[in-house]
Amino acid sequence: MTKKAIGVFDSGLGGLTILDALRRTLPHEDLIYFGDTANVPYGSKSKEAVTRLSLAIGRFLQEQNVKLIVAACNTASAQALGELKKQLSVPVMGVIEPGAAKAVSVTRNGHIAVLGTEGTVKSKAYPKAILKKKPNAQIIQQACPLFVPLVEENWTNKPAAQLIAREYLAPVLQSGADTVILGCTHYPVLKGVLANILGKKVTLVDSADTLAEAARVFLDKHHLAETKGKGRVTVYASDAPQRFKKLAQTLLADKISTVHLKKLL
Ligand code: DGL
């Protein structure tokens, strides 16, 4: 049987945090990553646009004969997962369900905060997924649009990151949430800054680790898991692959050797 890869996509760079988690959890799997650098950001786009772009990437990954597609982008998961599942023949997994399940399992007081892009917050995908599992949960959502450029500029250690995070987190602190979902690919990079402001009593739920674990469970359940050999990583970007490669080194534990250009539409 030929080895089939797992396809992973994001609006750009941030999904590499998911790729990294998949690589750690599933070291034998081949991974194909697609970053839609030509169309990033998705967070401020309409549902229609996000769906159209996600479907185009999904079809490309399907043509690469993948066995599973992971929508690593929270905005795409929140807005396009239904259509992706409907229109593609490969199973598709998003980051919302695993993140919501983890938050429900770790909260002690039932107060959960969701940090995400405008699009993710607007879709209410996280509150819906949380309430399905815990109907009496108290949920507060906070859009944090300035976090994405901070991460992309590698400014997470600058005072600006602290100042911006304090503003965004003020209502979260006030809400008494003991669990905060990092509902965007880029936010795990700011974990240190956020944890510092929120304090030790608040648990940060990182969608990267929860998604990787859900993918492992899925592959085991369907007898699709690779058990031998080191997995290979192939990376595509829809624009400026060299820039992508340079920025990727700040997000990934392991280096990537080549980023291929693959124009989307
Ligand atoms: N990847 C997006 C997400 O996780 C963040 C960046 C964007 O707005 O495209 O929601």
Outline the structure in words:
The chain has 265 residues and is of the alpha/beta class. It contains eleven helices and ten strands. The strands form two sheets. The chain has a six-stranded parallel sheet with strand order 4-3-1-2-9-10, with helices on both faces. Helix 9 links the parallel strand 7 and strand 8. Helix 4 packs across helix 6 and helix 8 packs across helix 9. The protein is globular. The model has no long low-confidence stretch (mean pLDDT 94). Bound molecules: D-glutamic acid. The site of D-glutamic acid has 17 residues, from helix 3.
Unreliable runs, pLDDT <50, ≥5 residues?
none
CA-based shape: globular
The CATH architecture term of the largest domain is 3-Layer(aba) Sandwich
Helical content (DSSP H or I, runs of 4+): 40-55%
- Residue-averaged pLDDT, rounded? 94
Tally of separate domains: 2
- Alpha plus pi helix count: 11
User: How would you classify the helix and strand content by structural class?
Assistant: alpha/beta
Provide the gyration radius in Å. 17 Å
CATH topology of the largest domain: Rossmann fold
CATH class of the largest domain: Alpha Beta
The topology string of helices and strands comes to EHEHEHEHEHHEHHEHEHEHE
Q: What's the total number of strands?
A: 10
Please identify the oligomeric state.
single chain
Into which percentage range does the β-strand content fall? Answer: 15-25%
- Report the bound ligands by name, code or SMILES: D-glutamic acid
| Through-space gap between termini | 32 Å
